[in-house]
Structures are given as structure tokens and as C-alpha cells.
From TrEMBL:
GO terms for biological process: glutathione metabolic process; L-phenylalanine catabolic process. One of its GO terms (molecular function) is maleylacetoacetate isomerase activity. The lineage of its organism: Eukaryota, Metazoa, Chordata, Craniata, Vertebrata. Belongs to the GST superfamily. This is Glutathione S-transferase rho. It comes from the Eukaryota. InterPro entries: Glutathione-S-Trfase_C-like, Glutathione-S-Trfase_C_sf, Glutathione_S-Trfase, Glutathione_S-Trfase_N, GST_C, Thioredoxin-like_sf.
Amino acid sequence: MAKDMTLLWGSGSPPCWRIMIALEEKNLQGYNQKLLSFEKGEHKSKEVMDINPRGQLPAFKCGDVPVNESCAACFHLECKYKSQGTKLIPDCEAGLAQILQRVFEVNALVEKSSNVIYYNWKVPEGERHESAIKRNKEALTAEVKLWEGYLQKTSSGFLAGKNFSLADVIVFPAIAYLYRHGLSEERYPKLTEYYKNLMNRPSIKATWPPTWKETPGQDILKDI
């Protein structure tokens, strides 16, 4: 089954990482994969464009079916291999609803963190304003506090229900990305506990971004 799958990915990319975690959880090791370099522009290569015409990573094919949006790919894998590996979506309606809520909600966290982390990259030097930087940081702080609050209300240590689920597969890489960029461990104790507990999960350890092992992180989020 896995031999019919192809994943072109970039190290440190949360969308790529989501799919890799899902594949591990569903016992779909042995798929065709290739690590590409964003810095070298390899995500714009013909090899990628043939699968993902947006020229973005991940570029993922399940058989002959391209599923490049990472959340869609994770749901596709769970639906197609529901009885294999970890059950990532519970049968109960309430459990599914909570997973869907967290999965779609993480887009706000990704957007607000990107507005801080990549501000200087996205905004030309002459158009940058301290007031905008301040607003972006305040918006991200409020967002991170929301996720800290969600974890305060659960005793399971997971984002949706009593067990590790598709919500964790999809959200964890975004949380890890925050800590990679200097989010305070002391300021957000429940989020930090969640991060440290899941970073030792076999599927996550097996797919940890290689560049993160080789190079230090940044501290751009230390004041959040």
C-alpha cells in the first residue's frame, strides 16, 4: 500500500510534517519520499509541479490521486485506512466535531504566528511599522492563550477527546513551530507539557525535522 504513495517534502514544514505523522500512525512506512530544499528553490521544480501545480510542499500522491493540502491528505489517509494503525477519528459525533473544530481553528494560529515570524520577509523595509509589529505580537499572544486555555480544560493531554487523534496530528507541528521560534516554556505551562509529551511519541520522533536536529532554533517569539 505505502509503496504506491509518493511524498515530496521539506524539513521543518508543518504541512509536510502532518502527513508524515499520519503515515506513521497508520503504519504506512516505506512510501516513496524525497527531501527537497526550500533554499535551493526545489519546491518549484518540474518534479513538484507535476504533482502540485502550486509549486508548494508537500506534494503528495496516494496511488494516482494527488492530495496536496496537508489536512485533506491526513483525512484521506484516515478514511482510506480506517482499520489500520491508530484510529485517529472516533466513531462518536461529538468527538468528530471537536476534531474538526481544532483542525480548522489551527489556521488562525498559523496565520498569526506567520505574521510575526515572517514580518520582515513579507513587508518591504520602507513599509514596516513598529505599530504593526506590536499589533501582530498582541494578536499572536491572544491566540496562544486560547490554546493554553483549551489544554487547561482537558485531563487527557490531547486536544480533542481522551486519545491521540487527527487533531493532534495536524495541530502539533504548528505548536512545535512556535517553540522552534522561541515561545516561552514558562509562560504557557500546559502548552509546554503538551509539546514535551508528544515530542516523544514514536510517530513524531520518527519524523522530527532533520534540520531541527542539526541547527539551533530562533528566539523571535520569546516575548509572546
